[in-house]
Design a protein that fits this description.
Shape: rod-shaped
Number of helices: 8
Largest sheet: 4 strands, antiparallel
Distance between the termini: 69 Å
Strand content: 5-15%
Helix content: 55-70%
């Protein structure tokens, strides 16, 4: 008996196929569906203030059930498990993940399917509870106020000092991002953090050198 025969024999003996009963299959799908619906509701709750994709949310719920079915099939037969590995290795997903939280929910859905397919229902339930508490806790932590961009068109470059005096009155921290001097005047972009936005814009626009003023908010990263 050669090395390959010994390896095949030891590998086949080490793999113990399981006779999965109908009751376990029904219980696995029932628990997986409940947890998949739970993930569906949490995702809907977390994205209520941003772009919500119902198709992606439905796919999250379906993915848990499909993954659980794959795990059950892989436990029942060696040939099926090897075939699943080969089939899944050639699958390529081209859809780009735009939000990092979507990636979190995607792995969460897959992990619930794997854990439920293995029969560890308590672990799956505890995982859902811990992930939910962690996401909600970190999501509701107070964040720093995002800076705003003040865009000012000046008829004369000498009016920069007047604008900065008003900026210092309303914003403790500010930074001039750009200065563009042309024959018609000067354009300034200043990063500011203000609370009284309306009063701030009105006072800046009331300066004699100011021709136009805009206060722009953005959803970029918060700088400290």
């Amino acid at each position: 008996m050669g090395f390959q025969d010994v390896f095949k024999k030891s590998f086949l003996e080490g793999f113990t196929s399981m006779d999965i009963s109908a009751g376990r299959i029904m219980a696995t799908f029932a628990v997986t569906c409940i947890l998949a619906c739970y993930i569906f509701l949490i995702y809907r709750l977390m994205t209520r203030k941003s772009f919500y994709s119902k198709g992606f949310n439905v796919s999250l719920a379906a993915l848990s059930v499909i993954t659980a079915a794959i795990i059950l099939a892989m436990q029942s037969n060696l040939v099926i498990s090897l075939g699943m590995v080969g089939a899944l290795s050639i699958v390529r997903f081209r859809t780009a993940i735009k939000d990092p939280m979507d990636l979190v929910f995607l792995f969460w859905s897959i992990s619930v399917g794997i854990i439920c397919g293995a029969g560890l229902f308590e672990v799956a339930l505890l995982t859902c509870l811990v992930v939910t508490v962690l996401i909600l806790l970190l999501e509701n932590l107070p964040a720093s106020r995002a800076p705003m961009m003040l865009v000012v068109n000046l008829a004369d470059a000498q009016g920069e000092d007047s604008v900065l005096d008003v900026v210092e009155k309303y914003s403790r921290f500010h930074k001039v991002k750009s200065r563009n001097i042309t024959g018609a005047g000067m354009d300034m972009v200043v990063e500011v953090r203000v609370k009284a936005e309306s009063a701030f814009v009105k006072e800046v626009s009331g300066l004699s050198e100011v021709q136009a003023v805009s206060l722009i908010a953005h959803d970029g990263e918060v700088t400290f």
